[in-house]
Amino acid sequence: MFKLLIVDDEIYVLRAMRKSVDFAALGFDEVHQAMGAKEAMALLQEHPIDLIICDIEMPGINGLELIEWVGDRYPGVETIFLTGHAEFAYAKKAVQLGSFEYLLKPVKPEDLAATVTRALDQIREERKAASLVETSQKYRTLWERQKSVVVEKYWQNLLAGRLAPAQENLQAVNLPLRPQSKILPILISVERWHKEFSLRDEDTLEYAIRNAAAELLLGGFKGDIIKDENGILFALVYESADRSPDAAALEEACRAYTNACSQYFYCSVSCYIGHAVPFDELMEVYHRLIELEQENLSSPLSVQQLDAPSSTGSRQKHPLAIPWSDWVILFETGNKAELFKRLDQLFADMQEAQADTESASALYHALVYMIYHVAHKNGLSVKEWTGLRERSGELTAIRSIAQLKAWSEKLIETGSRYLEQQRRESSMLIEKTKQFVKTHLKDVTREKAASHIHLNSAYLSRIFKRETGQSLMDYIIQVKMDRAKILLTETNLRIVDVCEEIGYENYSHFGQVFKKKVGIAPLEFRKRFQKLNLS
Predict the structure, then answer these.
(1) Residues 407-466: tens digit of each pLDDT
(2) How far, in Å, CA of 297 to CA of 292, rounded?
(3) Which of 7, 12, 367, 400 could form a disulfide with 54 if both were Cys (CB 3.0 to 4.6 A apart)?
(4) Torsions phi, psi of 267, nearest 5?
(5) What CATH number does domain 2-128 carry, 3.40.50.11740, 3.40.50.2300, 3.40.50.150, 1.10.10.10?
């Protein structure tokens, strides 16, 4: 439904129009009236008006001035002018203001109704067109938002070999390319973050890194910034018909980009620049860039051209001697200072020898094996080991010697804290267990001792054996026999009462255990040591 405003300075004209035309039947659910321009302005500010029927000749602000004011503020409102003078100047001005119609007073009701009906039809058409434009714009906006995702998925499928560079595939994702077009890939490697960030913060910074890459690396060329299926960032520069990417300019742009990442985005970045190649050669260059990045352990935080000769000469593989058995001892005994000292020397040797990824991988696995060996030897579950649970994958850890060094230090620090914590907790458990045994000697069992400290009896036994070198049952028997010795030598209790006091119901069994532990029978022990006490 629509809303109408009738403006005239004569009240009888307003009443006559409202009485002679059934505006509700025409489609209006609200009809407002104003005695002059100022009253009309106030109503327009309070109600969303669709159509105005306005007299031109009014005192103060006339109809033409009113509609000029309306046009500046409410451009969607249609106007029908009424006037008692057939002056061309009025008509010309009305046309300039974009009025729908110009009617002479006195206007017949049927003519006014017909004019209003045509005005409403035009309003409906304009709004329908506006709605279509708005819908089109909405879907265009949605496509623009999703375009980067669709394009990235296209490149992921192509680089994984699941998609051919057919023209229809390129058109489907709206890429300005042909199968013969050339693409120059640049691998962007985030070597490390300068600060500890949450995952949400890292996502935000990564978004900024991608935007900066689009601005600095693509330059005046069309292209896209994508991630492959393994999460590696690439800038794809699309070669145009009249321009080819210049190697020197690209290298300079990459250096500016790496500096910007370090300065503004708290990360160290390397760039590996490929060649401009057609689609059928792109996968080969893509894999060679990944290999170049993975093999670059000793020169991170750099900009390198594919196939560019290394300034430090050709690399040679050097077997890496890893004295992991020595590390196990140092780690298990808590000698972190010496362990870090030896690792620092090893990393320095790797840097000097330009060690390859095979050596880095060997060191990575040696450290992981050290952790598992020590953990299992001490009866600890690696699943509970925070440092291992949260550690980066191997490919991330061995990206550079500096990265591997940082990973190693973090792993050892976390592992050492965990071991120390477990030792403290184990020591407390042992003391609680011993205290319980001594205070409940008469009826103590392994199960009761474990229940007292809320542990499984088998688990408590393993901890007790590991920490004391003695089984829990042997310790209970030892405490019972020590108590029996005191009772036999310092009291006159009958031996059968001594048995009962320490929890043995069978004298024969007590005698056998006592003789096995002490070397002589209880009665002989009493005779021998009571005489010594008396003397």
Answers:
(1) 888 888 888 888 887 778 778 888 899 999 899 988 888 898 888 888 888 878 888 887
(2) 10
(3) 7
(4) -150, 155
(5) 3.40.50.2300
